[in-house]
Amino acid sequence: MHPRPLNAYVDAVGAIDWDRRLFDSLIPLPDGTSYNAYLVRSEGKTALIETVDPSKRHVLFANLESVERLDYLIAHHAEQDHSGLIPEVLARYPEAVLICSPKAKSMLADHVRVAEGRIRTVADGETLTMGGLTFEFIHTPWVHWPETMVTYLREAKILFSCDFFGSHAAQSDLFVRDESLIDLAAKRYFGEIMMPFRTAIQKNLDRLAPLDIALIAPSHGPVYGDPKAIMAAYRDWVSETPKNEVAIPYISMHGSTALMVERLVSGLAGRGVCVTPFNLDDVDLGKLATVLVDAATLVIGTPAVHIGPHPRVASVVFLANALRPKLKFVSILGSYGWGHKITDTIAAMTPNLKAEMLPPVICRGLPREAELAAVDALAGTIAARHAALGLK
Ligand code: FEO
Fold it and tell me: What is the 3-state secondary structure (H, E, C) of the chain?
């Protein structure tokens, strides 16, 4: 993709990755992604904000072909999808100074071998004037690494936010063309990447609140021409109040767990609770992470393999624990052949889930009427507990 103008000073010079289907060897990318970089020019001075993933080296360097001199390279984040080409850009532009947060300095040295002599660190709130433009650097730790910062270009009222407010979405339009992206790609991105850092993100949203922001230019996905909706969505996602929703990741080997999940889904839906089952035979982890952004309750469905949970369930439980969703309640449905330690094992795997365990229903073999009645009772308990919290 050729450079595209954002405004009179700024061109988007990054790369769209239409074909990538997995990020970090973990996160599915149904809609590809982009690695956005921005070139700022004023009065003969030039700054590049971010580089791109090394797999798109050819795109970035083609877009920089006419740039003979670079004064600054601004790096908000040390993760390689943005920082991976910093050494090559610095080699091509020997006069360029790399701007980053103090925490990023050693991380860039470790991750991509940036020579520390090329780096100038900036304090929180520090400004840099270039060709009559003012860059204000704001430290925003833990969105989603400790060194992350953003840059506010005062005269143009643009916030360059790196991963903050990003979305994995490949599209030819530079700007958000349909705000459903916020509830789909941006929320999914938040669930996958940002959710464990809700408290830090809340503080960083407060830091940004006084700024007059006309555009948010993230480093993944399209630019927000009207930042109000994405900022309001982030406020909602980081809040401690969940919604009247239940996520049920499950797997079934011989049909018993599936029978109980089906019964629970029906019982919850009949009581006005929004419920989403995820059969782990073939699951989109991004969809699960999206539902976990709002869910008040997680019910895990698993047969016993030997005596523990099914390994695919264990993997998802491990992920849910790492993502630290704002769950209020957890429970388990399961079935075993001759014995089990499903409940103890799952409890030991989820120390980060500060949620109350509602009585699990675990049966030997096929569920009997009494056990299905216990599933109905669990549905009733979940609906009542959600109602008591006033969840909508
Ligand atoms: Fe897009 Fe955390 O890197």
Answer: CCCEECCCCEEECCEEECCCCEECCCEECCCCEEECCEEEEECCEEEEECCCCHHHHHHHHHHCCCCCCCCEEECCCCCHHHHCCHHHHHHHCCCCEEEECHHHHHHHHHHHCCCHHHEEECCCCCEEEECCEEEEEEECCCCCCCCCEEEEEHHHCEEEEECCCCCCCCCCCCECCCCHHHHHHHHHHHHHHHHHHHHHHHHHHHHHCCCCCCEEEECCCCEECCCHHHHHHHHHHHCCCCEEEEEEEECCCCCHHHHHHHHHHHHHHHCCCEEEEEECCCCCHHHHHHHHCCEEEEEEEEEEECCEECHHHHHHHHHHHHHCCCCCEEEEEEEECCCCCHHHHHHHHCCCCCCEECCCEEEECCCCHHHHHHHHHHHHHHHHHHHHCCCC
